[in-house]
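Long-time lurker. I teach an intro course on protein structure, and each term I like to show students one example going from raw sequence to a predicted 3D structure in token notation. This year I'd like something fresh instead of my usual example. Would anyone be willing to generate the tokens for the chain below so I can use it in lecture? Attribution to the forum is fine with me.
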Amino acid sequence: MTADTDARTDEYATYAPSGETCPDCGQPFGSLEVCRRGTVERQSGPPVVVYRHPKCAEPFRRDR
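-- Reply from a regular --
Happy to contribute to a lecture. Here you go:
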């Protein structure tokens, strides 16, 4: 899979919606805690949006 079509990549910094948890560490996000928005591919449909803590998102950063 090339970087252009890899939906697991990190997109940008934002704030997670209330109740979201990081898919990598399983921890919830605090109120106004900055996170990284990204997507992951699914076999059953289009990619789904995920929010990761900055440290958890480091392996998915596009600029690395």
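Some talking points for your students: The beta strands are 10-15, 34-42, 45-52. Helices lie at 54-57.
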